[in-house]
Amino acid sequence: MERSLKSMMPPKEIAGARNLAINGGVPYLDSIPWEDPGVCTEAADDVAAVVRSGRTCYWGGGPKAKELERRFAAGLGRKHAFFHSSGSSALVTAVFAVGADENQSVVIGSSGFVAAINAVYHNRARPIFLKTDVRTLQCTAEGYIPSATQQPAALLVTHFLGNVVDVPAIQAAVNATRVIEDAGQAHGAFLAGKPVGSWGDIGSFAGSHKKLVTAGQGGLNVCDSDLLNDRMRMVGHHGKAGRTVGEVPGYNFRGGEMEAVLAMHALGRLEDRTKDRLRTAAAIQDVLDEAGFVSARASSEAPDARPAWFDVALILPPEWASYRDWLIQALNAENIPVSTYPSLIEMPWVKPWMTSQGWWGDREEQILAHERSLWGRVIVIGTQMSPEDGRRCAEGIVAVLTGARIGEEVFA
Ligand SMILES: *Cc1c(COP(=O)(O)O)cnc(C)c1O
Questions:
Q1: What's phi and psi for 156, nearest 5 deg?
Q2: How many angstroms separate the CA atoms of 20 and 16, rounded?
Q3: Which partner for 236 in 64, 253, 273, 368 could form a disulfide, CB atoms 3.0-4.6 Å apart?
Q4: How far apart are CA 327 and CA 150, in angstroms?
C-alpha cells in the first residue's frame, strides 16, 4: 500500500480537521460493529431449568458448578477447578491460597488487567513489578534483580491480550515459591504445546463479558495441589474449612448454578471461538502491517505455540503519544470501538500505597517511566467482532492516523 508512514500528517493537523466525526463530520462507519458478548443464547432452556428447579445456588457449590469444575479441570489436564463468582474473586483466592500475605512479596507483571494487582493489595502482600516487553506487550524478567533476603511467595503473570507469557523463563529468573497464571484473556492459547493455565501452581480464568468461557459473571481457578484447592475454597467460602467456624476472614466467592450452565455451554464452543478470534485478529493485524503500523506480536512463532488474541494492540508512533486519548475519542466518534489499558504500576493508587509502606524506590520509578511511555502509546481493538468488521475498523484507524480520512481539500 502506498499510504506509508511517510505520508502521515502531524497529529496536530489531523486533530483539527472538520470532517472528522469528533469535530462534527460524518462517522467513518454507519454504526458500531456488533461485538460478541460471549453468552451462549442456546443455553437459555438449560438456564430456565435451573430456575424451575427452585435453587440457583448451593452452600459449597451446586451440581452444575461441580460438573463445570470437573469438565474445566479435565480440559486443562488439572486435578481441581473451583468455580468463583468472578475472575477478580478467583485472583484474590489464588493469591491467598499460595500464602502471599503481609509478610510476603509477589512478583507481578506490570502488563495485565487491574484485577491482578487488586488481588495482591487485598492480600496485603508487597508487589515487585516486572517490566513489559515492547514487542509482545507481555511481562519479562529483563532487569529483574532477585532479593538477597527473601524468596517471593508468588510469581503472578498475566497472559495479556490473549498473548502468551513465557512462564518457565520468567520463573527461572524469579524463583518464586509458587506461580500463578492469570489466563483471564488467554483461554485457548498454548505455550510449547501446553495450554495456558496449566503451567503455574494455579491457573486463573475469568468468565465475564467477552471472555472466551463466558458465564455472564464467573471465574475459575485450576490447580493440582489438594492444599491449594482447600485454601481457595476456604477463603472463598466465608473462611470456613468445615461447616461452622470461620478460620480466616473470608468471602462469599462461590459461582452460581445459572452461571455454571452458561459457562459449560461456552466451554463447548471454546475451540471454534478461539479460531474466530484468531481470524479477526489476523484481519486487523494485516491492515495495520500493510500500512506500516506496529502491533503487539505473538510471543512465539513456534508451531506448538498459539495466542488466542482477545485484543489487537496498536503501538502508536512516538509523535502520537500525547494524542492517544484524543485518538480513542476520535475513533469512537467514527463508530470504531477502541480503548486502552494502563499498566498495573501506573494505577494512581499504587505509588502512594507502596510509598506509604516503604516499598517504592528508584527501581519502581524506572519501571513506572518505562511502562507509562509504552502503554501511553497503546490502543486496543477487540477481536469479538467479525473479520470483515475488524478489517473495516482497522482501515478506519489507518485512515485517521495517516490523514487519508481527512481529504486533501481540507488542507489545500
Ligand atoms: C476480565 C479479566 C479478569 C477479571 O475478571 P472479572 O470476571 O471481570 O472479575 C482478570 N484477569 C484478566 C486478564 C481479565 O481480562
A1: -120, 105
A2: 8
A3: 253
A4: 44
- SS3 assignment, position 286: helix
Q: Which DSSP state fits 130? A: E
Exposure string of 133-170, with b = 16+ CB inside 10 Å and e = fewer, is: beebbbbbbeebeeeeeeebbbbbbbbbbbbbbbbeeb
Q: What percent of the chain has pLDDT over 70?
A: 97
Count of beta carbons in the 10 Å neighbourhood of residue 371? 20
d(CA 253, CA 87): 10
Tell me, using a 6 A CB cutoff, whether residue 138 lines ligand 1: no
How far apart, in whole angstroms, are the C-alpha atoms of residue 59 and residue 237?
Answer: 8
pTM over 0.90: yes
Residue 349 has pLDDT above 90, yes or no: yes
Does position 153 have pLDDT exceeding 70, yes or no?
Answer: yes
- Residue written as cell 498454548? 190
Conformation bin of residue 162: beta by default, left when phi > 0, alpha when psi is -120 to 50: left
Contact 184 CB / ligand 1 (< 6 Å): yes
Q: pLDDT tens-digit profile of 280-339?
A: 999 999 999 999 999 999 999 899 999 999 999 999 999 999 999 999 999 999 999 999
Closest alpha carbon to 257 in 213, 218, 203: 218
Which atom of ligand 1 is found nearest the CA of 209? 8
Beta strands in 91-138 (DSSP E): 105-109, 126-132
Residues 8 and 315 sit within 8 Å (Cβ to Cβ): no
382 Cα distance to chain centroid: 11
In 3-state terms the chain splits into helix, strand, coil percentages (rounded to 5) of 40, 15, 45
Extract the runs of DSSP E, i.e. beta strands, from 288-361: 294-295, 311-315, 338-339
> Any idea what the Cα angle at residue 80 is, between residues 130 and 225, rounded to 5°?
65
How far does the centroid of ligand 1 lie from the alpha carbon of residue 184, in Å? 5
Q: CA 268, CA 133: separation in Å to the nearest integer?
A: 33
Nearest Cα residue to 23 out of 320, 333, 410:
333
Q: What does DSSP say about strands 105-109 and 126-132: parallel, antiparallel, or unpaired?
A: parallel
User: How far away, in angstroms, is 83 Cα from ligand 1 center?
Assistant: 14
Cβ-contact 397, 336 below 8 angstroms: yes
The span from the CA of 53 to the CA of 138, in Å, is: 45
Ligand 1, atom 12, lies closest to the CA of 184
Helices (H) and strands (E) in the chain, counts: 13, 14
Please identify which residue in the block is written with the cell numbers 477487540.
382
Angle in degrees, CA 136, 276, 208, rounded to 5: 75
